[in-house]
Amino acid sequence: MAALLPVGAVGVRGGAAVTCPCGLGEPYETCCGALHSGLKTAPTAEALMRSRYAAFAVADEPYLLSTWHPTTRPGELDLDPDQKWLRLEVLARTGGGLLHTTGTVEFRAIYRWQGRREELHENSRFVRDDGRWLYLEPVRD
Which InterPro entries match (predicted)? Predict the structure, then answer.
């Protein structure tokens, strides 16, 4: 079994493919790595959300910013190198498929920060803009 990709690392470790942090169990290079490098685009809102989680795990700020809708995108990100992303759980989704223009993905992201296990729970809204999925914002109740 391949090792989990450490923050800031990409691709291969010791000649073996590294498992993508997104949770699908595929090698990083052919999974989210292909999206991060621009070889592919996310076909669904869930695929984009998984690739964004993986981008947080590998500290790929340019990818995070480029997949954020321009109306809600911050000018810059300040990723904390001490925050270690451990696991992603997709809880629910609405729309966001190949024939949709909007969608939501509810997820739980488990991480370690300052020696404590923490979690981020969010229901994220995505829109397809010019054929490309973008993160818009959290769903507000």
Answer: NTF2-like_dom_sf, YchJ-like, YchJ-like_M
Q: Which CATH number fits domain 23-138: 3.40.630.10, 3.40.1190.20, 3.10.450.50, 3.20.20.70?
A: 3.10.450.50
What is the tens place of the pLDDT at every residue in 31-50?
999 999 999 999 999 999 99
Structure tokens belonging to residue 119:
């979690």
Closest alpha carbon to 69 in 123, 124, 127, 122: 127
Structure token pair of residue 64: 């995070």
Query: Residue 34 to residues 8, 12, 21, 40: CA-CA distances in angstroms?
Result: 16, 14, 13, 6
Q: Residue 78 corresponds to which tokens in the numbers above?
A: 């300040």
User: What's the whole-model pTM score?
Assistant: 0.88
Number of neighbouring beta carbons within 10 Å of residue 141: 4
Q: How far is Cα 30 from Cα 40, in angstroms, rounded to an integer?
A: 10
